[in-house]
């Protein structure tokens, strides 16, 4: 997934985050920030809940910068925008196919 942050300095830019590769610590931090856990995140995204968006943005920022980030900068930004793009990247497309091919070969043995 690509996360784009606009007009929220110092975070303006694009960040890549594979939602399937989140660590337990990242999931816990997302829950702390958004109040959402597990399947609640998916439901909240479908409803356009900004808490879910903030949770993913924090996970991406903390992964990139390697330390805790202040979610208040995202929450309090006037006119700022955070967009999530779930269009699979080339590397995300490759993983399921490779896994599927390995599974198919194992089943045919």
Notes on the structure:
- The protein is of the alpha+beta class.
- It contains five helices and three strands, in the order ββααααβα.
- A three-stranded antiparallel beta sheet has the order 2-1-3, with helices on one face.
- A hairpin with a 6-residue loop joins β1 (about 1-5) and β2.
- The longest helix is centred in the last third of the chain and has 19 residues, at about 90-109.
- About 15% of the residues are buried.
- The model is unreliable at about 95-105 (pLDDT under 50).
User: What's the order of the H and E elements?
Assistant: EEHHHHEH
Gross geometry: globular
Query: For the CA atoms, what is the radius of gyration?
Result: 16 Å
Mean pLDDT figure: 84
Proportion of residues in extended strands: 5-15%
Q: In DSSP terms, counting alpha (H) and pi (I) runs of 4 or more, how many helices?
A: 5
Identify the strand order in the major beta sheet: 2-1-3
| SS content category | alpha+beta
List segments where confidence is low: pLDDT < 50 over at least 5 consecutive residues: 97-106
- Helix fraction bin: 40-55%
Strand segment count: 3
Compute the separation of the termini in Å: 35 Å
**Sheet with most strands:** 3 strands, antiparallel
Quaternary organization? single chain
